[in-house]
Amino acid sequence: MNTQTNEQKGSKLLESNFSDIGVSPNILKILDRLSLTKPTPIQKQAIPVALKGTDIVGIAQTGTGKTLAFGIPIMEKLLSQNGKALILVPTRELALQVNESIRKLSINLNINTTVLIGGENIGRQFYELKRNPRLIIATPGRLIDHIGRKSIKLDQIKTLVLDEADMMLDMGFLPQIEEVLKAVPKERQTMLFSATMPIEIANLAAKHLKLPIRIEVAPQGTTAENVSQEMIVLKANDRTDYLEKIIKENEGSILIFVRTRYGVRNITKKLISNGHRATEIHSDLSQGQRKKSLDSFKSGRSRIMVATDVAARGLDVKGIELVVNYDLPDSSSDYVHRIGRTARAGRKGKAISLATPGQLKNIRAIEALIKMKFNVVEKAKLEAVYTRKRSFHSKRRRRF
To answer: For 112-120, which contacts have Cβ atoms below 8 Å and span 24 or more sequence positions?
Structure first.
């Protein structure tokens, strides 16, 4: 796999605009109307490569402009030749967000799109597929459902995008992805975008992409530049009271991550009973309920959103000032995605994580990933608890 980095691109791209990287006049007019003049680093590097039809493996966090990095080349190709494009994403929210961005690009271009996601009326999707859309944005499960019902064929796909590939694998979608890859033509352009590069993603790229260019705009585990991070250690039973303290001390919109759906519901109820404007989002909600909750948070009607990791990626809400990890994530990489919901588009943000005394290993794993040491509040207590546990287990081994 070829590798392309910021340094290798050279200083001439530092002040480039979209016309400098090969974007056509038709698309430039739309970008100007959207007040988009300067490409982001991932756009600077990916768009020229993608316009050549080359396969890409892009490593970039959410919020870096990835959608336009593949969306612009897709529009260019659909305008210049026959065929269709398919964008595969892990969650409903991300599918709708990608569609929203793409539709802004396709204004007056006569390129119709459709979104295929679970939780929505499949009859409406049948109707839209009969209109022969040229761009399909789908989650793996619903797309496989349509393939099984023979309501869609993928034999005209010329461009395939696998967005947030690592999250799709984390969610267990590898069999569905493999099935989709069998259904699309072998002669196609494939662009794979991922926030991290685990071995499973590398294997997927090696198996299904043709001499891809690897584009990495930031090392894996890089957190947003303008986000301040705190790690607070306290007893599990004290977290709810401390959360109330955090909310009172911080103004603006707040996104709270909780590990389980039950926990999300419980905390949301407590916040509402305390007089806060709070809403929730998790996989137990219908698509309509999730959209209503997200719209409430985006509009400011709800100051607080409580969420499972369904919102760690694919949630594009402007101006989130604080992210709270009420529970530390199961995966260290999800920490990066969670706090990436704040400090977007050059703004400042804050992230506060609540850990329990037995989670030293979790904290160390996050520190190793982001290459930063937390100034852990009550760190001495945490170290003492961990040391006692190790000593206890060591004594038990010697006893037997």
So the answer is: 113/137, 116/142, 116/143, 116/146, 116/152, 117/92, 117/142, 117/287, 118/92, 118/142, 118/145, 118/287, 119/92, 119/286, 119/287, 119/288, 119/290, 120/92, 120/287
Find tokens 């659909």 and name the residue.
78
Burial letters 92-112, b for 16+ CB under 10 A, else e: bbbbbbbbebbbebbeeeebe
CB-based contacts of 199: which residues, under 8 Å, 6+ apart?
Answer: none
351 close to 230: Cβ distance less than 8 angstroms: yes
CA distance 279 to 24: 42
- Find the distance separating the first CA and the last CA of the chain, reported in whole Å: 52
What residues does 59 pair with on adjacent strands?
194, 216
Q: Are 165 and 201 in contact (CB under 8 A)?
A: yes
Residue 215, pLDDT above cutoff 90:
yes
Domains in the chain with CATH codes? 2-216 (3.40.50.300), 227-386 (3.40.50.300)
Give the model confidence (pLDDT) of 97-134 as tens digits.
Answer: 899 999 988 878 889 999 999 988 899 999 999 999 99
Of residues 63 and 385, which shows the higher confidence score? 63
pLDDT over 60 (residue 279): yes
pLDDT at 80 over 70: yes
Closest residue by Cα to residue 320 from 148, 69, 62: 62
Best CA proximity match to 69, nearest among 50, 91, 86: 50
Residue-wise pLDDT tens digits, 351-400? 999 999 889 899 999 998 888 888 787 644 544 544 555 554 554 444 43
Structure tokens at 400: 């037997």
Residue among 330, 331, 92 at smallest CA distance from 220: 331
Q: Across the chain, what does the average pLDDT equal?
A: 86
Q: How big is the chain by its Cα radius of gyration, in Å?
A: 22
CB 205 within 8 A of CB 192: yes
